[in-house]
Amino acid sequence: GLPARVRIHEVGARDGLQNEKAVVPTEVKADFIRKLADAGLRSIEATSFVHPKWVPQLADAERLFPMVSDLDAELPALVPNERGLERALALGVRRVAVFASATESFAKANLNRTLDESLTLFEPVVRRARDEGLHVRGYVSMCFGDPWEGPVPLPQVVRVCTALRDMGCHELSLGDTIGVATPGHVRELLRLLTEAGVPVGETGVHFHDTYGQALANTYAALEHGVTTVDASAGGLGGCPYARSATGNLATEDLVWMLQGLGIETGVDLARLTAASVWMAAHLDRPSPSRTVRALSHK
Ligand code: HMG
Ligand code: MG
């Protein structure tokens, strides 16, 4: 059966804005995050403490975080290494995420490391974060396909997931970075993870909508018992270090489906849509979300 409630992990301000050509002013980002919280989202990924040359769009993390830290929402942030964690701790960040890859090519492109070197990079980060009482999420990118390597063998994905859990990550997020997954593929990976002893309650899904499969994939994951779903308001998103990655599953599309299924999210769809329309005006292009378009043209 399907869950009674889904926890939406909103990634628009991070995954979405990291991929914008134009750098969005810090005040606009803060207003956006505030509107997302007002719409009822309680887990809003705010920014990344990565190298500012690698992702200039998020180089204002130090200025942004204090502008939103009063909100009644969890505000997790990405940290690739100890330097990133230091920066996050200095601001009082309480939830962090490390981000691994299921493939060598993306580990190299995104972290300038081999896959195993990147896991070694994360070990002291996760240990220290846990010692400080932080909640740690472990992303795994390219779970269903890689732009350089093509199909990704599922045992390779399971190995990285298991390594992150053994390291101490409280939760995983399975990334379909380039949006190539289909529901059968999702079911198969979740089945293998369950077999490997990875609890489905501690596993989120992170679908990009490149091929229009993100909602169908989410439904397959919900049927398997997944209750944490990543999505980005208005369908913002992509990844600057992955060719052919487009926006994430739009939060509005997700909420529309979940409402129809009678699944609780705590999100006010009208307010959320208004936030995305507002952001689209700042970015000077319409939201790709079908639900946003339908609801805003009524
Ligand atoms: P590197 O060049 O190998 O860095 O980059 P390094 O460790 O050799 O350090 C070089 C210099 O950078 C040093 O300075 C460090 O202090 C500095 P120097 O001594 O030369 O003056 N430095 C930093 N400065 C500020 N903050 C830091 C930091 N770290 C080092 N944290 C690194 C390695 C990991 C830093 C780099 O590759 C990087 O920042 N990568 C981030 C890429 C990224 O953010 N990608 C997008 C997020 S992942 C994603 O979107 C996928 C996801 O959505 C899931 C999915 O869809 O699949 C999560
Ligand atoms: Mg992503």
TrEMBL record:
Domain of life according to the entry: Bacteria
Protein keywords: Lyase, Metal-binding
GO molecular function terms listed in the Swiss-Prot or TrEMBL record: lyase activity
The Pyruvate carboxyltransferase domain, residue ranges: 6-273
Name by which UniProt lists this protein: Hydroxymethylglutaryl-CoA lyase
Entries under InterPro entries matching the protein: Aldolase_TIM, HMGL, PYR_CT
Gene3D superfamilies: Aldolase class I (3.20.20.70)
Alphabetical list of CDD domains matching this protein: DRE_TIM_HMGL (cd07938)
Family listed: Belongs to the HMG-CoA lyase family.
Matches recorded under PROSITE patterns: PYR_CT
Organism: Streptomyces pyxinicus
Pfam families, per database record: HMGL-like (PF00682)
